[in-house]
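[[Per-residue structure]]
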Amino acid sequence: MSGKGTPPHKAKGPPSTVKDAKRAPVSSKSKLEKKPSEEKRTSVDLAKITPSVSSKSKLEKKPSEEKRTGVDLAKRTPVSSKSKIEKKPSEEKRTSADLAKITPSVSSKSKIEKKPSEEKRTSVDRKQKTEMIAPVAQVMSADEKKTTRVAKCAGDCDAQDPGAILRLTLEKLKIKTVDKSESACKVNDIIHRIMDHMKKNTECFREVKDLRTGSYYENLKISNPDEFDVMLTVPVNRVLVQLFGDDGAFYTVALKRGKHQLNRFVHEEDYTISAFKMLKDFRKEVKACVKSIEGVEVEKKKKGCPAVTLQITGMRTAISLDVVLSLEVQTSWPSFTNDGFLIDGWLGTKEKKKYKWEPYYLVPKYEGKGTVEREGIVAKDAWRISFSHVEKSILKNHGSQKTCCEVGGARCCRKDCLKLLKHLLGLLKEKQPSLSKFCSYHAKTTLLHACCTRTRDSEWEASNLSDCFQLLLEDFERHLKDRKLPNFFIPTQNLLTSIDRKSCEMLARCISEERNNGFPIFK
């Protein structure tokens, strides 16, 4: 022995101390006992000791070390899988930072836990990425689904089965989601700009409001979203509305004496509002607004047309936008409507009363020569009545039962029949230019009359598309042969008056040939 004193922790005895363990290899079956003074040794010391221990040796753990987590053990696994290392009480207080320092020596199979803040950050990032990708994925999937449906219908289509041909045609007429979205956004932007311009720069149009009408807003547009109709309405109160002509569709509007924003357009002798003057001013303001919008041009004025037509280019689909001036009248509907609008048996008496409480609209449109005078007023200063807002509403809520075409309800084919009739009429007009005076409004009016005749949803079941379409075509043929198609709201007005009998008979014959030969024009 040396003459110097031996520290207590280096006293002689079995190789249970740390230095002894390093100096003398222990057999695989031996157990190393640790003294109390060594309980404060850190886990870093143990990590240094552990590699020299035989793969079969077992280091006993003290009771205080049993509370150490499985993560600590997993991160200090250079020791053989069979060996067991005991932990001292002092090691229980080791922080996660110490563990992080030890981790590099862990094998590739070990698992590193993420902090809660990192988990939240990662999940937020994933969510944001998903939200950005989702709209594109939805658009693509919708268009891909359409392509798949068309291909499937074409594969299943029997050339001799009219029903199969009609279903395939309907699939082809559906508008692509991406085109619909792009067109609607562009139209909305232009309309908002025009309205802002009117409100800021004019006195007579500062109370203008927009009313979306036409086939696009009725969900009846086919093939391409290339035509839009938007009414810009000006409210008029305390006015006198009087009949102009005999059929009940045209009227004059007179302001009651006093200050009014539309006084600049009235005739001094009778205070009637000149439709011609007001439309001229309206057109001038629309042109002033859109001249700074790239890709928008104003079409040349058409005789008797109440709209300012804008041609919009620079997109996938060129658009024709009709901006229509109209007066909103908050009085009872004219008496000429009393014998029309026969929806009692179809939509119910309550619905009819509700609609008749709504305002009606007057647009600056006339028929024939604008210089024709009646009681001192020329035709070009008259206004035509419009119920396009009611048409849109009843076509959207078209079932005799509230659940018709809704989720969980039975589906009908009313709208499908109208789409097919509009498409058929368009194709026939392309083949026969002499049929150019016929329009989609004739097809819509035919359907509205048919709905009042065949009122039950069961008479328009989607599974009976072929039979229902045949019946609608027979109705249209009958109107054409009689050369009489009453206005749905004002039955005294015949919508076919301005079309000669020869053209009506030719169209009726073309439709008959198509329906009797399986619609070759659709193939």
About this structure: The chain has a mean pLDDT of 78. The CA atoms of residues 257 and 268 lie 10 Å apart. The longest strand covers residues 319-329. The two ends are 113 Å apart (CA to CA).
